[in-house]
Amino acid sequence: MNFNFEGNYKAKRNINLGGVRTHDDRRSLMAKAQRERRAREQERIRLQKTIKIQAFYRRYRATKLLHQQLREDFEQLLSAQSTDRVNALFTLTRQLILFYRPSDSHYITLYTAYLLSPYNHSTLLNYLFTLKGKASESWVWLVCLLAKKVILPDIKSNDSGCYLLSVVLNPSCYPDAVEDRHRLRIMNYTIYHTPILETLGYIISTSEHSKQDAYSLLHYILLSTMHPSFQSTTALPLMVATHLLKWPFFIDNLSRNSVHQFIQCLSYDSLLNQTIVLLQGTQHELDDTSIAGLLMNITQLGDIDSGILLKNSFANYAKTLQLILTRLPIEYLFTRPDDIDTKIIDEQDSDLSDESEKEDVEMEEIPVRQVSPIIKERLEAFYDKKKMYNLLYRFNEAIKITADRNDMVKSVASLFNTIMIRWPSKKDLILNTLLYKSSMTRDLLQLLWEIWNKSEEALLFNEYHMMHRLTEAAGSITDPKVSSASYPVLFLLCEIYTRVLLTISDDEFLEKREFFSSTYTNPLQLNQVIQLGQQLKNMSFTLFWQANDIDLNRCIPSTSIQISHFRSTITHLLQQIHLRDSRRSFCPSDHWLIPDLDTDNFSSAAVAEEFNLENDKEEDEEEERRPVRVISRGRMAVISPRLGILNNIPFVIPFEQRVEIFRMFVENDRERNNIADSYFRPSSSVTIRRNHMFEDGFESLYHMGANLKNRISILFVDEFGLQEAGIDGGGVFKEFLTGLSHEAFDVNYGLFVSTPDQLLYPNPSYYAVGSSQLSQFEFLGLIIGKAVYEGILLDVPFADFFLKKCLGKSNYLDDLSSLDPELYKGLLSVKNFTGDVEDLSLDFTITQDDVGKTRVIELIPNGSHIPVTNQNRIQYIYLVANYRLNVQIAKQCKAFFRGLSTIVDPKWLRMFNQQELQVVLGGASIPIDLDDLRTHTTYAGFTEKDAAIQYFWRALESFDNDLRMKFVKFVTSCSRPPLLGFKELVPTFCIRNAGVDDGRLPTSSTCVNLLKLPNFTAYDILRRYKQTKK
Question: What is the pTM of this model?
Fold first, then answer.
């Protein structure tokens, strides 16, 4: 805007009379130049492509014209009566090599006829090999090129080509040594520089074409490889494996003589070595069908003449099969598509699954590849019983003559492991075959133990002070640089021995053999079992402790065993050995503990990890994410190594320490749920009739579920319908729990029955599985959970097999002795019967008495028509024990545990085995510690120095332990002391002055652990009354 001092402030208009003028800036000029440059470049490229297309077309047209001219010359020369037929054949061969295309296959027939035409008392072919000098060399190379360029590319669809090549390579056509030398040169070139082996493998393995010429050609090749002048190299077995044996059914389609010739020409051990090189390397990639073909053909060769070839090659044979099975896709290993529609991804699969964790599974859809049903059917035969037995038998024969037992055992162990891992549905069949169909089981286990125990890894894990070598120990399993082949031996040892322990009794295990057949006694000596337990304990502890630093989905180096699967297997056997020791001790007292482990630090860290874990779960619920699921043991070990230890191998931590951890878990739960703050403010008040405790308790409390953790006030109504006076400060609820348990667990009530030792377990009758009864079992689980949660001891003795089932574990043969001793003895008699078991007239059924009615239960489909024989008696024994211990009380246990786990977190319960859980429920079966009781006693109306109190403790000290237990039950309603001593008694044990009255008996209020003691004037009076009361 222009300004001046004349008052005119408006801007002047600028008028341009020269028209519109554009000003291009630097950027637009650069863009324009780039566009023009790109246009010129595209034009140049288009021109170059045009030139190439024109050149290609001209070349194609010229080649086509040339080939057409050559064909015409070829036909003309064939029809002409040439006087120089040798040169004519040279010309025909060159022409055929130059112009041949797949559509020209009829020319091969014409050429073959000309080649075999009579000449000089023989054939033209034979005569050409008698030529000398350069002519001979030219002919040999022309034949090599003819095979490579003309015959082999079209041989799969042209029978005349296969015939021509078989004629050229037929040794009978060359009786002269010089002539045969030329043939061997052609053979050598054909084998090493053409795909002849792969082509023959395809033709022989399929039925699309005539195979006679292919058989003849293979025969000539095999004969040539045996000739002294043949240039045989170490690559030949590798080529045979790569190109011939990869075809499914190749060996099947050969005649017996051809197979024997095949083996004579090629060393079977060399063939196995080269196959191992092939499978371990990356130079030759084989497709899935080729891998299946290798498995078929190598096993077929191994079965020739009852496995004679395996006598000196068994280690390589086992290693080869193991490598093949590792690379074979799972689609080839199942007969039904349903088996592989989904893939379960769950660490719990590798860490001891139990019934409470079945929901902790994720499903991932994977594509299913189509596999020939013929190939699948053939592979099915690989793991049949006879095959497994023969494999074990040949191993047993080979081990007698081998110089390197270690290498053979490790190879065979890897093979059996891979079979079980790759065919999990056949694991039982394989293990049963190894165990019960073979007389070599004991020798096999001893051999596996011997090889494993001599390894450096066994020495490492036999270390007593393991805490100082945890990193080294973990590296020995996971680090490829230090890991050895000893772990497959241990893995197989654990798999077999775990199965052995399922069907031998404690007497057989402890080697009391005078009553039992040696076939079924413990295959390992007790000192070996103790040493194995030490190694497995350290190994399992290492894998759980280091879980955060280990990729459990990886395989142990040089094996097909996932680390998670390995951990699961060794932990399972470890638990079995510990279970035996807990029933009838044979290990040193501190055998199961981890020396140098800071248990106090362990406890505080475990409690902190559990607290954080539960808080994270609550945050997930508040954010309305997916429903929170029960965390499996495998996942638990990854999230929290210490909780993983407590849930899988809790016995490495002292029992008292675990009880303290349990009480801290409960306190944390109270804090999370604000239960501790509301101790004096009951959340609910319930009226209970004393003579109908279970009925009223069920009606009032069952629907509360997890809210039963809160404080509940109980108001009793006596038999006259009058409310009892008093305020429930916690003691009345304890009295209610005690009274309800006495009523509900009375065998006359019908929900529970007792063993001969008066231990309780759910009624197995059909009546007990009704919906109302299952609800009652769940309610009893809630009540027991409430008692455990509050630290209230109940004098209810449960059977071990029932508690074991409630913890999600399975019971086995030896657990049957507590339920039905007579049946247990009978089954052992059947197992050790030396005659024909069929004479006992047993079948696969069991009878069950249901309220006076007898029912016959079939243990397997059509079991009433299947007799028990010497061969299947182990299966019968297992099924009978499984039905009595697991099946018939499964629903009742599941309902009971559902209630118990509503109050007490399952991962807390898994810190204990069944014997320890009984202690948690009812107190420790240990002598009464009077010093501990005296330390934690309070007085009301008395002082510790009063004469009556001095008389009281003097009297208790004079009692034996049985009388002391009766006294404790008189005051607390439970004869056993609390787990961690009387400091855990809630409320604290109290002695109240009941006045001076030498004629009055002491009384008690068990609901508040109160003893009402008269102020006796003399010791003799007090002791007489106390002993009378007991």
Answer: 0.78
